[in-house]
């Protein structure tokens, strides 16, 4: 029988746990600081820091966090003050989570992984887990412990198993207790810290990393290490507690004007920024506390961190920042994100199951636990998966893994089972419900098909500069124990084949750009011109171009009255600055992804001052920008 036990049940009060936020400032490293600008941020005390106010350089802005770790703080100090206090919870059936956040090159991997000389949070936390297990095994003889690990990266919105590098994108699911599970993810049993090291080091080399202008060894993915401790009582009532520790090294937020990213780096960067933007939205929603939908499902990262932010984990966020002026806006944004994250409240509880001794002889009748679901398909032999603890037996999988919402299927199957043992009238009612559920499934299937079609459309419209098409040569290796493994092999990214790009012209909402009537007056072309235009208008793959009789491209702007042009641009600017996601998507050549990037840019940088600012967004090249302007203005004026 599975129980959910509130943390302070004994005391009768349910405890909440605020996300703890620490900020770590890395040492000043810019050797080319010719301007002698010095740092833009500095510590004031163990919890406070200040940063120059960009609006007025004579002022500073001060922040207070749970902890501030200055440039001289050692790895040991960071671990002891910010991480160690939450690790012990996982030996009591609770979850804990540590994640490093911050701009690229600010020290996240250094903090989480470190080097051989200066090991970071990950090796220290795992060592601590084994230390606690050994101590408790000695002190609490009736309990047995088993420790295991999984390790994954989220790369370009794909969940990849770092312990099984050839695996495909893995699905993320949620069980009825809101545990996030990843069927098929490798779970490896560990007997000691050195055992962990043996598995972890090669797996880390599978992580996707590459060199950017700001960081020679930049992580191009979010890496999540999961350490699971199962504590099993050897005597009746055979309680079993499962605690999980998530250690997350996030990819850095990136400003591509400075990273110099192009091609595949730019595409990765788009995925990184988008997931971090969703993370920020999740925190906003949690802070708003309106009980509305929290957009966890909008990115794989937030789906995976669901338990860490607003869930049941004891969480610590270490925000890494850099002191150099060139990082100023990244630092400022990171500090603001950190400041709002400290208001997020989690509700830890103990995950406990109990083996019912009366039924243990008949295991088939039992309900399966989320852990078993997770282990299912892990690739490990079943007896190995169950090693070290008696598991509740589970019925065989009742349905194939399908993209359809599994909760609906489960409900349907449960209903079908009930029908078999019910009286006639009840049976009819149940059959009705079954029919309804089947309809729901059908609808979900249709919805999924629709989404897939939309996704296909996006593939066609989304990446016009060919960024998806580049096949990358060997990139650089993982940052793990950097000095100790010099000849690391780089992971090669295999990417989609080039797709021929086609302009997709959505029906234009004229009113968004200019009233139609006005257009008709200002830009009505002469009959001769119109005839010529029709004769020479050709469609050439990427977009419709207007050519004159000599085959020269007609300058479309010259056909418009300059004030009309300005007005149209103003309207577009207005939509860019205040349009909702839907309104942004109604602009020509702006799909869901670009619209979200625009919203993200707006959130971080404020309003666009001119439409040309759009070029600052990843993936919007000068060429694509001019297509965008042309498509929107011409359609608006009805040409
Ligand atoms: N506290 C620190 N002390 C000494 N060196 C540091 C510290 N923090 C970071 N560094 C160094 O700064 C460089 C960049 O750090 P790191 O790779 O950890 O950044 P990151 O935030 O993980 O970047 P990315 O998001 O691009 O992966 C590395 O050479 C690292 O060794």
Task: Lay out the secondary structure.
Layout: E1 2-6, E2 17-18, E3 20-25, E4 41-43, E5 48-53, E6 56-64, E7 67-69, H1 75-87, E8 95-101, H2 108-112, H3 121-139, E9 143-155, E10 158-161, E11 173-174, E12 180-181, E13 188-190, H4 193-205, E14 209-210, E15 218-219, E16 222-233, E17 239-249, H5 256-259, H6 263-288, H7 300-304, E18 313-321, H8 328-341, E19 345-346, E20 349-354, H9 370-375, H10 382-385, H11 406-420, H12 424-462, H13 510-513, H14 516-523, H15 527-536, E21 538-540, E22 543-545, H16 562-578, H17 581-585, H18 592-605, H19 622-636
Parallel strand pairs: 3-7, 3-18, 8-17, 8-18
Antiparallel strand pairs: 1-20, 2-19, 4-5, 5-6, 9-10, 9-13, 9-16, 11-12, 14-15, 16-17, 17-20, 21-22
The site of adenosine-5'-triphosphate has 19 residues, from helix 2 and strand 15.
CATH superfamily of the domain at 75-322 and 345-351: Kinesin motor domain
Query: What structural class do you assign from the helix and strand content?
Result: alpha+beta
User: In the CATH hierarchy, what is the class of the domain at 75-322 and 345-351?
Assistant: Alpha Beta
- Main sheet specs: 11 strands, mixed
What is the β-strand count?
Answer: 22
Q: Between the first and last Cα atoms, what is the distance in angstroms?
A: 69 Å
Helix percentage range? 25-40%
Tell me the CATH topology of the domain at 75-322 and 345-351. Answer: Kinesin
Low-confidence stretches: 7-13, 359-423, 459-553
Name the quaternary structure: single chain
């Amino acid at each position: 029988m599975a129980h959910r036990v509130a943390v302070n049940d004994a005391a009768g009060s349910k405890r909440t746990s605020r996300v703890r936020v620490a900020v770590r400032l890395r040492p000043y490293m810019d050797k080319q600081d010719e301007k002698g600008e010095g740092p833009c941020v500095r510590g004031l005390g163990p919890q406070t820091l200040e940063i120059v106010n960009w609006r007025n350089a004579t002022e500073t802005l001060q922040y207070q966090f749970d902890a501030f770790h200055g440039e001289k703080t050692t790895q040991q100090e960071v671990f002891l003050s910010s991480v160690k206090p939450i690790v012990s919870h996982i030996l009591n059936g609770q979850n804990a989570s540590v994640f490093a956040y911050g701009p690229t090159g600010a020290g996240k991997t250094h903090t989480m992984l470190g080097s051989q000389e200066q090991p970071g949070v990950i090796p220290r936390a795992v060592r601590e887990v084994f230390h606690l297990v050994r101590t408790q095994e000695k002190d609490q003889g009736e309990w047995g412990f088993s420790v295991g690990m999984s390790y994954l990266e989220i790369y370009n919105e794909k969940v990849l198993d770092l312990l099984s590098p050839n695996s495909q994108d893995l699905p993320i699911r949620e069980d009825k207790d809101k545990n996030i599970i990843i069927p098929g993810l490798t779970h490896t049993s560990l007997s000691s810290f050195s055992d962990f090291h043996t598995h972890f080091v090669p797996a880390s080399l599978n992580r996707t990393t590459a060199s950017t202008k700001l960081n020679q060894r930049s992580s191009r993915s979010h890496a999540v290490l999961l350490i699971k401790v199962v504590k099993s009582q050897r005597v009746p009532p055979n309680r079993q507690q499962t605690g999980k520790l998530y250690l997350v090294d996030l990819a850095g937020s990136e400003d591509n004007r400075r990273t110099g990213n192009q091609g595949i780096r730019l595409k990765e960067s788009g995925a990184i920024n988008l997931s971090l933007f969703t993370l920020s939205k999740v925190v906003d929603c949690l802070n708003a506390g309106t009980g509305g939908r929290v957009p966890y499902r909008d990115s794989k990262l937030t789906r995976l961190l669901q338990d860490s932010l607003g869930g049941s984990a004891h969480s610590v966020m270490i925000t890494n920042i850099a002191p150099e002026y060139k990082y100023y806006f990244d630092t400022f944004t990171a500090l603001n994100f950190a400041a709002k994250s400290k208001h997020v409240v989690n509700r830890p509880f103990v995950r406990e199951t109990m083996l019912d001794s009366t039924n243990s002889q008949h295991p088939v009748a039992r309900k399966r636990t989320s852990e078993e679901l997770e282990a299912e398909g892990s690739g490990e032999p079943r007896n190995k998966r169950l090693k070290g603890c008696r598991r509740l037996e589970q019925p065989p999988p009742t349905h194939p893994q399908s993209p359809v919402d599994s909760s609906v299927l489960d409900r349907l199957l449960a209903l079908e089972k009930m029908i078999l043992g019910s009286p006639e009238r009840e049976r009819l009612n149940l059959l009705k419900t079954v029919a309804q559920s089947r309809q729901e499934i059908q609808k979900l299937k249709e919805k999924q098909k629709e989404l897939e079609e939309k996704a296909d459309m996006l593939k066609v419209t989304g990446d016009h500069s060919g960024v998806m098409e580049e096949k990358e040569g060997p990139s650089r290796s993982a940052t793990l124990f950097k000095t100790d493994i010099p000849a690391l092999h780089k992971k090669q990214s295999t990417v989609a084949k080039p797709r021929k790009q086609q302009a997709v012209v959505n029906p234009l909402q004229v009113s968004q750009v200019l009233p139609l009537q006005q257009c008709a007056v200002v830009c009505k072309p002469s009959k001769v011109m119109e005839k010529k235009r029709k004769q020479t208008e050709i469609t050439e793959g990427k977009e419709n171009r207007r050519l004159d009789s000599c085959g020269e491209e007609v300058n479309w702007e010259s056909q418009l009255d300059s004030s009309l042009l300005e007005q149209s641009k103003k309207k577009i600017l207005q939509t860019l600055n205040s349009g909702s996601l839907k309104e942004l998507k109604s602009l020509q050549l702006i799909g869901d992804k670009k619209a979200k990037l625009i919203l993200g840019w707006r959130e971080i940088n404020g309003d666009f001052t001119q439409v040309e600012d759009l070029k600052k967004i990843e993936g919007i090249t000068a060429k694509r920008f001019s297509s965008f302007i042309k498509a929107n203005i011409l359609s608006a004026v009805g040409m």
